[in-house]
Amino acid sequence: MGLTPLCFLLLVVLAVTAAAEENTVSDDYTWPQWKVPVLRKQHTVHLSSPNFSARPQLELSGTCGIECQSHLPGPSLHDLEKFLSYETVYENGTRTLTSVSVQGLNEVTDWPRNSTNKLRHKREVYGTDTRFTISDKQFSTKYPFSTSVKISTGCSGVLVSPKHVLTAAHCVHDGKDYLNGAQKLRVGILKEKSRRGKGGKGRGGRGKGKGKRRKGEKDQEEEMEREENGGKGEQKGRGKGRKSRSRRSAESEKPSFRWTRVKQTQIPKGWFKGVSNGLAADFDYAVLELKKAPKVKHMDLGVVPSVKKLPAGRIHFSGFDDDRPGNLVYRFCSVSDESNDLLYQYCDAKPGSSGSGVYIRLKEPGKKKWKRKIIGIFSGHQWVDVNGNGMQQDYNVAVRITPAKYAQICYWVHGNSSECQVA
Question: Domain 6-193+256-414 has what CATH class?
Fold first, then answer.
């Protein structure tokens, strides 16, 4: 019968993961219903246009990590309102600053205290690379993978509404200025079908091409096996200087994108250096509003008090890693440590995956149906100020969505707080 297609193997992995969660989770493990604070717009002022002169940063330095945060007091209401005030940059290059008030913060309860765990793993890929390359277009354009998008500055993002993309703030701003190219920012959505022939003799067609397609799927399976074995396991007798069939197949099947211009970009003031006093990592997120809504399903936001206490403590995300150009890369892993605002995790990743939406699966309240929701933004590989004394260590970091951040992102998406009362 031949080797199992890559897409089928990945479906098996997802099914096993879901089955494990189903067997270990009681009906009590549902999405918690949070009463989130309410953001009110105070006033908006016009600022001078940005220079758009900053260069993209593959790695961030000096951010205050979990250990560093544990020595700091929690932000006051005044500080939080300052951090959640935000800049909006429009496609014509103009910029505004909007200040906000936060109401009902004291009603948010049971949010965890900062915690620390001395066990750490270093660098972007830990041991054997466990990432899955989704090179089959028909698979990568299906939910939940279809929610992943590519940002023209080199990052990834996730659709959180029909026309809004959540990504990392450092993908458009370095803390001092907006990136070169951010003024003409674009978002790439994976195309579902190739423009080439829809049948017959066309390269992307059906009919006579069926046999070749199956052969290509076998090659993709071989590629995934080699990836899981650290690059080993190639067939014998293959020349050293000759590309493997799987590599050629993966290259020929690279996904194509449909690019859409960004209408406006919103970033929390807490991201800017010197404002948050070293806490910028907590606010490494931004929302991009598209000029035209793609006909693609989006993923909702969610809030959880702890990831480590959830079934298996696993998180999932997909992005466009630089070392696998043009291909969507999916991974899942355990969280090694968490604080109020950050997640340290074992997920294998490379530059380019920054800005990906980190999601988990839980049951909907009162139902047996499982639903995926975004609970964080993958910030990427960072050099972290561990104890606040300047000593740097490198970790893979994700920014978690707190009730206050949920309220802000929801406000950006809907334009008012009436739809953002409960997470």
Answer: mainly beta
